[in-house]
Amino acid sequence: MDKLNALLIKKKISTSFIGREVYFYPTLTSTNIAAEGFLGKGASDGTLVICESQTKGRGRSKNFWHSPPGGLWFSLILYIQDKRNFSGITLLASYCIVEVLREKLSLLSYLKWPNDIILNNKKLGGVLAEIKFFQKKRYLILGIGLNVNLKKFHPELENTAISLYQEKKRNLSRVNLLKNILENFEEKYLIFLQKGLKFILPKIKGVSNYLKKEVEIIYQDNILKGIAWDLNPQGALILKLNKNNFKEIYSGERLIIKE
User: Fold this and answer.
1) Contact 179, 18 (CB under 8 A)
2) Whole-angstrom Cα distance, residue 92 to residue 129?
3) SS3 content of the chain, % helix, strand, coil (to 5)
């Protein structure tokens, strides 16, 4: 298995600020939890916290995220002070990953709202964005998990999860994959800060596998049923409930595509 370390990551990545400050750990409870701890220690914008494995990795709604050695488990600290720019960041980051998988690895992956990265109808990865406050300022911690060189999963995950190793039948360089993701994200993130999500929304829609399909969404302890009609300029899902009734949903725990 390829090794990760802070020195190698900094040497490989050609960015201006994303991932220029790196903290690597063999094991963490969660990279998002660790990243939050750096807010009070002068961590720079774009600081990367990465580990080999997580013991309490989290997805949306605090769901457990299986993250043993062999994956990419990392978080970015982003100093976004305009709260309008928090909306859509999850879709932006997810799209950047999908674009890398398609262009660099020739893998036809997709996005599933709000934060899943899908390959062969199974979950390959996910993104978790959390707003945090420190000294009366807002920060965003962007957590990313990607199943890279995992050979197998727990039995309860075998039918729903997939790794790049399982698809490509070989180990991949996680450092190179991380480099491509972070460089792609920085390029688009700088535009996003100026223009919002609208500049890339058509491309996001183009790699979304749920639009115009019948779906169920777990939302605020309720199940909403309808057609995933569109995405609005902020990245909210427009759900068509019936002929003349649409609902914009900015966050949901889970989206299920009805086949």
Assistant:
1) no
2) 11
3) 30, 35, 35
Amino acid code (one letter) for 43: A
pTM for the full predicted model? 0.94
pLDDT tens digits for the chain (259 residues)?
688 999 999 999 999 999 999 999 999 999 999 999 999 888 999 999 999 999 977 655 455 567 899 999 999 999 987 766 677 999 999 999 999 999 999 999 999 998 899 999 999 999 999 999 888 788 999 999 999 999 999 888 889 999 999 999 999 999 999 999 999 999 999 999 999 999 999 999 999 999 999 999 987 778 999 999 999 999 999 999 988 899 999 887 788 888 6
Whose structure tokens read 């491309």? Answer: 203
**Site of tokens 């058509």:** 202
Count of Cβ atoms closer than 10 Å to residue 148 Cβ: 23
**CA–CA distance, 90 with 81 (Å, rounded to integer):** 16
Q: Are 250 and 87 in contact (CB under 8 A)?
A: yes
Domains of the chain: 6-205 (3.30.930.10), 210-257 (2.30.30.100)
* Token reading at 30: 């969660």
End-to-end CA distance of the chain: 38
